[in-house]
Design a protein that fits this description.
This protein has 158 residues and is of the alpha+beta class. The protein has helices at 2-8, 36-43, 52-65, 67-70, 108-130; strands spanning 22-33, 81-89, 92-103, 141-154. It has one domain (20-153): Alpha-Beta Plaits (2-Layer Sandwich), CATH 3.30.70.640.
């Protein structure tokens, strides 16, 4: 057991108190692959649980704001802006999130969390259309979640 205690002490939240406050902006994206028939159901507005694109936008914003509740070592940040876009594209739905803050640490994790949770919500509300005869998801997959841009610059003193 002493080994476990020592090992657990290796995890710590980084001290950012001496870092200057900077303008931070990050954009992340990801895709959920869906069957063509599911995409047609979405486009017709016939998804039983509601509009997956609208749900993705709102749940992505909420997720960005709650990132430090889900990622153990992530600092809680005061976000100045969060924008989540969800759009049907060939073969699925692409979600893109942009997060902005004036903080001592970056907002990449908030953007990635927004995308991830938005995509999971899309899966949740479309899963009944994605299952095969055995109740499996042979086509559905979430892929390509990544940070596409990151900005850090000094905050004007004015």
């Amino acid at each position: 057991m002493p080994h476990e205690t020592k090992r657990a002490s290796l995890f710590r939240q980084v001290d950012v108190s001496s870092k200057p406050i900077s303008y931070r902006k990050a954009t992340a994206t990801g895709l959920i692959r869906l069957k063509q028939s599911t995409l047609a159901t979405i486009k017709k507005g016939k998804v039983e649980k509601g509009d997956p694109l609208a749900l993705a936008r709102i749940t992505g914003v909420v997720a960005a704001k709650r990132t430090s509740d889900m990622l153990a070592l992530c600092h809680p940040l005061r976000l100045d802006a969060t924008q989540v876009r969800a759009e049907a594209v060939r073969g699925g739905i692409r979600v893109t999130a942009t997060v902005v803050a004036k903080e001592r640490t970056g907002v990449e994790m908030e953007a990635l969390t927004a995308v991830s949770i938005a995509l999971l919500n899309i899966w949740d509300v479309t899963k009944q259309y994605e299952k095969d005869a055995d109740g499996q998801y042979p086509f559905t997959r979430i892929e390509g979640i990544r940070v596409t841009s990151k900005v850090k610059r000094k905050v004007d003193a004015s």
